[in-house]
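Reading a protein record of the kind used here takes little practice once its layout is understood. Each number in the token line that follows is a code from a learned vocabulary of backbone shapes. One such record is shown here in full, so that the layout can be seen directly:
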Amino acid sequence: MKLLFLTPGTGSYYCGVCMRDNALAKQLCLMGHDAVLLPLYLPLTLEETAVSPESPVLFGGLNVYLQQRFPWFRKAPAWLDRWLDHPKLLKWLGRFSGMTQGTDTAAITLSMLQGEGGAQNREIDKLVRWILQGERPDVIWLSTGLLGGVARRLRRETGVPVFCSLQGEDSFLDGLPEPWKTQAWAEMGLRLSELDGVVAPSRFFAEAMEARMGWPTGKIQVIPNGMALEGYGPGAASPETPVVGYLARFIRGKGLGTFVEAFIELHRRGRVAGVRLRCAGTMIAEDAPYLEQQKELLRAEGLLELAEFLPNISREEKIHFLQSLSLLSVPASYGEAFGLYLLEAMACGVPVVQPRVAAFPEILEATGGGVLVEANTASALASAWEELLLNPSMGRTLGAAGLQSMHRDFSMPRMAARFLSLSERALVKES
């Protein structure tokens, strides 16, 4: 089977969706299928080798922006269009791209969801041509619902089934200003309803998105995220001193502030001697002021020397980081669709401590790899850490359960088989 995955690139920082899609495509190739990953907007930034290094970047970020702002640019000469899509230029541009959501971002988001009715119809023409000039795929997968606007023309002009994976679109759309927010939600719901299938990484997120888009319960299927486990595993020895860890973007929404407050609370109680803090994850320029605020809080308590922050680390560095931890917590304050960082910790035999919100209870019920706290507060988190760190055997038991579950239920081969099964059923239905 030939599968085409359309995935937005970031250009400069690691993105969980990009890395998941790349690992998924690689696994499908290992299983004897032809899987191609096509980046959109900006080049992919990955922890490992790209599965499709020869793929161009379509819907180049500069062209998308200029076509939105200047209607005359939608008829720019072909040579200029090609120059603006050059991978080196887009890679350079990615160094300056952020994740802010002003009116420009809102207008582009809505326009993209409007597909052939939006400002980027020329880019859809290029995508369709690229697909038809090569070997036609059997199935096309969109890595986010925000790409739903391209599906109508893809289905009509290629004649192949189109599916979509949901990955936290609600928090992005809810951050847009009005009236674009309401319009974008309505357009996404309409466009995704036309697809051959929509999947979510957790039942929590499937039900949340069904409610937001006014769909019946059960319309969105659940395929939990998986991960490539090569290189992962427990460290050679437990940390000599207790270490609490955080692995996510350095922002408020992921709970970095709550994590730091819990660490301060744990030290004030004084029952766990010498405990250290280690944080790793994505950081871009606009995140730096918030990180400095957290460092100031630690400095004021005399704890900064016990803390370490490691932004934008490689895959090998991430594994080494995880193996150095006694436990991991990412107390995200929004409705996290999944939380791949939990799987990464459990793949190293590290227990996790999470708030009883969003997809976290679902993941921990399936894995047995950690504990939940009822309230998403620093005090509740510190209490759970304290109990776990004072009972090392409990941590080892939870870590072993999580590790076993990774190989049994959350490996990349298991996830790839589920994607393949859904794709094959669509082809049988069409025939």
User: Anything to note?
Assistant: The domain at 2-227+412-430 is CATH 3.40.50.2000 (Rossmann fold). The longest strand covers residues 2-8. The mean pLDDT is 93.
